[in-house]
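Researcher: Next entry: CDP-alcohol phosphatidyltransferase (Rhodobacter ferrooxidans).
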Amino acid sequence: MIDARLAPLQRWLLTPPARGLARHVTADQMTLAGFVLGALAVPALAFGAFGLALALLALNRLADGLDGAMARLSTPTDRGAFLDIALDFVFYALFPLGFALADPAANALPAAVLIAAFVGTGSSFLAFASIAARRGLTAADTPAKGIHYLGGLTEGAETIAVFAAMCLYPAAFPLLAYAFAAACALTTAMRWHQGWQAFR
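Model: Predicted structure:
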């Protein structure tokens, strides 16, 4: 919902460090490093190290912003866009899994519901992007993205904010997961409607 509005601020903040990092590592290497850091949040969550998981979440998101900034300093590649998008979606599914492992009795069902909701938002996002690319459509408010970026009620910023809240208040995970799953379901329905209208 607010990703496009945050993009100019993100570019302003991350372009200077990205310029320095680009002399030593590639954007793809930054993407892979960010994913590894994010994946390490799963065992951290499973063992109840919620503060560590929050730090790993922050590092994952920092790397996710830096890789795009680094790519824009040279020439963004299709491989880079593919890696960035594919690994982001896996990370979004892994994070709730960590809470399920931490307390299966309390968290397994809400985690499963949330992951299922992510399938809805992710599949509608990617299906729209695929057909939009075939038709040569681009998103006016996110021209720097590697694919057509279809917005919604729950986008990256909202997802990360909820993940952070889960780390800060782990006992509230079931409530947060169900509430965000409902918001994701609404986003999915909105995207279905947008696709139905756009591709007639």
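Model: Note for the record: The chain has one domain: 3-198.
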